[in-house]
Amino acid sequence: MASSKVAPLIWCDFLARCEVSCERRWDPCIAHRGTELERFLAHYFAQPDRNVLFVGGAGFDPRTCAVAHRLGNTASVIRALLIKEGRPNPPQDQIDRAVENTNTLLSTLAGLQVEPIHIFGSDGAVVGGRNAINVLSRQHMEGVTDIVVDISALSVGTSFPIIRYFVERTVHGKKSTNLHLFVAHDPCLDTNIRSKPSDTPGYVHGFKGRSTLFDEANSARLWLPQLATGRRPALRLLYDFVSPHDTCPIFPFPASNPRRGDELAEEYLTELESTWSVDTRNVVYADESDPLDLYRTILRLDDLRKPVFAEAGGSMLILSPLGSKVMALGALMAALERDLPVAHLEPIGYEFEASMPEKIDEPDLIHVWLEGEVYPQPRPALQMEGFPAP
Question: Distance of CA 149 to CAs 39, 62, 68, 179, 370, Å?
Fold first, then answer.
């Protein structure tokens, strides 16, 4: 079996010394935050001909209402769909918070539809992504000019399939539709909301990539787990599931907490030194607040590995985005463009401190314009194009 250890290459050191010239679909990419985002919202969505489909989560997360509230203050015609993720036996305080958020959204957006979905089937199988796609497939899309997906209160297992579904509709559709991704960035909340992982790792619905193909059995597998506080049990199960030849853990840097990288290195010391056998030069650093930074880094790694392992079974990157939703967005974009597998352990529930605020007064919103009229044609193709919809 091919192994990425057949050559003494230190990938991140190699990455720092080399550049690969390759066209990428989202480089450059239209993105906004801060005052630029405020100006964009005030100008773009204030246009009366904008017909918006808003898709978000109906959950307990304090960020649930942030994006919807900003859009609700524009002149756009908005039809809203909220996905209510159902997990076994949620605590009453989470139910109460979710109900309050949903009621707030009902008063913010006029045309609002709430669709509950089961994340787990009766046999324990993860079905949330598939159920979300079934809900979307029943939506009336005629006349919609802009699709807004807010991942702030959606899990990876639900948001990734939703976005892939809309990307495929946009790419293969006869009419150009604008696809916008929003997230309320708050790394402290991402850390404080602790997931209780299930015991069955797998691939996110629609994101198996080439991992199950027989021809890829001998590929050199490089695992890129996004490190996050309190996720050691989940990452242990994912490591056994992926069985990688090499591991390049992703650390947030720069980060809102300057010591976050040191704290993660201390928390994962056993994994870094023993279980994963990570060379210190094989650590990936990505800006915690910029999804495009991680997106570009993953694609550069992919570009550099392909020629090296072309004669030894090929190369495969496997992603595991945990923690920061902004960094998960960067991993999503790379997975979409290169059809990379995303290994994931779906949470069966969540825990958080009682002191966690019910709402965020001044959220740090980030917008990525993923598809639509703003980009010149033709664009670099997605490797997932031509594949059936998930």
Answer: 19, 17, 10, 8, 10
Q: Which of 188, 224, 215, 196 is CA-nearest to residue 343?
A: 224
The encoded tokens of residue 167 equal: 């990307």
The structure's pTM equals: 0.91
Q: Are residues 176 and 308 in the same domain?
A: no
Domain of 224, CATH number, reads 3.40.50
**Helix/strand/coil for 203:** strand
Q: Mind listing the pLDDT tens digit for each residue in 35-67?
A: 999 999 989 998 888 999 999 999 999 999 999
How far is 263 from 274, CA to CA, in rounded Å?
Answer: 18
The CATH number assigned to the domain holding 63 equals 3.40.50.10770
Q: Residues 146-189: pLDDT tens digits? A: 999 999 999 999 999 999 999 999 988 767 899 999 999 998 88
Domain that holds residue 286: 199-345
Tell whether 46 and 131 lie within a shared domain: yes
